[in-house]
Design a protein that fits this description.
heterotrimer, A mainly alpha, B mainly alpha, C alpha+beta, A: mainly alpha, 11 helices, C: alpha+beta, Rossmann fold, OB fold (Dihydrolipoamide Acetyltransferase, E2P), 2 domains, six-stranded mixed sheet, five-stranded antiparallel sheet, 20 strands, globular
Amino acid sequence: MSGPRKPRGLTVYAIAYLIFLYAPIILLPMFAFNASTIIAFPLQGFTTEWFVRLTGVQALHTAVRTSLFIAVVSAILATILGMCAARAGTRYEFPGKGGILGLIMLPLVLPEIIVAVSLLVVVVQILQFPLSAWTVIMAHTLICTPFCIAILNSSFQNLDASLEEAAIDLGESRWNAFRLVTLPLVTPGIIASLLISFTISLDEFIIAFFLTGSEPTLPVYIWGLLRFPQQLPVVMALGTILVALSILLLIVAEYFRRRGVRRAGKTETGGFL
Amino acid sequence: MGEVFWVGGRVAVRHLDRDSRRGLLLVSPTAIYAILLLAVPLSAVVLFSFWTQDFLTVDRTLTLANYREAIAEPLFRVLMLRSLTISAVVTAVTVILAFPVAYYVSFHVRPDRKALWIFLITIPFWTSYLVRVFLWKVILGFNGVLNTSLQGIGLIDEPLTFILYNANAVVITLAHAFAPFAILPIFVSLEKIDRSLLEASMDLGENRVTTFLRVTLPLAMPGVVAAVLIVFIPTVGDYVTPRLVGGPDGLMIANMIQTQFLRLNNAPMGATLAIIAMALVTVVSLIFVGLNRRYLRGQKR
Amino acid sequence: MSSDKALISLRDVDKFYGDYHALRDVSLDIFPGEFFSLLGPSGCGKTTLLRTIAGFEDVSSGTLSIGGQDMAGVAANRRPTNMVFQSYAIFPHLTVAENVGFGLRRSNYSRGERHARVSDALEMVGLGGYGKRAAHALSGGQRQRVALARALILKPKVLLLDEPLSALDKKLREQMQVELIRLQRQVGITFVLVTHDQEEALIMSDRIAVMFEGRIAQLEEPEALYQRPGSRQVAEFIGVMNFLGAHVISNEGNALELDVAGLGHAVIGRDQCPGGPVSGMCHVGIRPETMTLLFEDRGDGPVADGVVDEVVYYGDMTYYDIKLDGVPKPITLSMKNMIGRPVLDIGTRTKVGWDPRALVAFS
């Protein structure tokens, strides 16, 4: 069989498209190290002043701590909930399965503002609870769970159902069979799921904007900065750090996800979604 | 354990076997969470839309007043229509631009490189949305990257002004933000196509173009439909992009919902607008799926 | 056969999945040391039956006992059975030795004893020295051996095998069939094999239960099953059998006088009606290898006339479709190929020698 013919035009287009996708990310560090308060070309020279300034802002540090707390807790909760649903969905047939899983996956397509608004109505208007980091955690767990399920599904799906049965057949209890066989095999998927939901929660703005209490998350803090032109270079520096961190987390997550797929002895070409 | 549930309008009592019970038990924490934090709040929004704001208190008598006002108020109508139009354009642009990329990766990239391409395509999606949108403002601005570059190479004399603080800017920015959402489902459906079908088509006398039109495209349609829905539905409710790059003429319904909730403290009206927006999105989506019914038949879940 | 000697005993077992009736009124006894096969087409319930014995499925009604003990409410991990799965279910994250020793985790053996037992088990299946290998790097045949060692190391009363050879290619499958028989004789454990391959069942089993649609259609030793199938369905599933219309001329004492379409007059014994008494119009079955083409007009037995309709050359054998005079549907017969024996052309008139002892009659 002859290999696929590579049409030049399509290749050029695909590369141009990638450049379009990466344009903002490439520009970000350029302005972060640019010695000018105006975010425009031509660049004025190299400086690390904006990064240095980040270290001195107390409000920023508080926002980072709040965001990290929210992201860690949301990631753990979403991954636990995701594991339950992914295992139930891949392993068992039960009445109402389609509807139940449909509801759980719904936040994937629901505009985030709808999630934000509906929780705001319940928490503030009906329950009259004060807004806090926990209201954001509740919402972030909700929107992260479908992503966790998508990742964990591929881990659980690649698992031969008879592996656990074999462990039971060899004398282990149901729980030990899960612990000794399934858990080690899906661990890479669990790590990927934790990292992805951490990243989503850390970046999420609109829900946090609606539901955050007196302590803003990092994106909400950045949103506030965007109104002050003299603060923009600092935002660029902060954004650079965030993007670098996100990419790092994603590479680690992708590594674990693929290792999980490999462990189960399969090859595949899909991405996160 | 016996359980009563509805099957086709009839009450059926069925003996649930061991697997069903285990499955239900296992899915229940997640399901209960989704019910409490999604189904119940969404229902609350529906309920709220039938109440009215009476200065500082909410009047809890059920009324259609909000809906009447929402339909009568020209500003709401404009915003609603603009949101749908912008989303439709964004969806069309995003999907049309994305299809060739998905096709390229699926058909012309070496199998061992596909995962890398998909990874590269998804990375920008995971990086701070807020900062990304803001950078489009920098790129598209009067003294922005695009204008200075184009002026630098002598393509234009005056900065282009039609690309920022209007609907165009919103379309460009959203098309960028939702690119991976469009590429992935199309890629997945292209990957599923048995390559021997294309050879069969060639063998039966079709050329590359007609094979694409008669075999590849119809088989990729489920992915295209999924891409359209997954782009169209969330973009209608986007808040950040219109606010940052839209200018006064690029604002969308989400901005008004936010205003009603957080500025005007009129939660019932905000809820009403959210419901109307969701209803319109649902109707448009259903019509779209209906039109593409024949491509979706025989699709297994 | 009395059931008190049986190792595995099923009585009136039914199994439903929702409305689907997977096992229908199954009763059978499996005896210690037997190589027992469950044979049938896919969806006949044979795997469900095996998984019921293993404890992975509940019975909807009826009883199952192993070693005289009722198994109701006894979970799979507490049953004296071990299983070789169709996919082998080798734990991919463990080494070969860790796989084989998996079931010893909860035993009281010392580390050294455990190690020795794993080595012995690997030696037994011909994988001595493979212990440190990663499980996911094994070939199909090696996986199967690991699965066997892993199950047998626990010395179960019963080894359950779910289509263990179906994933192997033909050569390896034939080799493993012989090895499994040898292994079963060596360890003396009762083997219960599920297969859809009738040849495999005939080669390996002491007794075979043929299943259709959740029911046991016939339970016999291989030879009796092949030569005296209890119904047309069984006869057609096991090997090839030709069917010819016939009618009973007389039915006296122990003998049955038949007029068979294409073959003519035949007298058969009552034991040649394994499906029960036959009268009036009936069907007569005859296996391809019990008939011969008479190249030179000789032979002492009964002879039928016909025309060669199709010839299929198999190397060691040649299969002929012959249209017997007066029978529209051709019958198949097989001839061993020998030096100097010609292969006939299509359209040749020929004589077919047959033996009334090879006939079976069904109503």
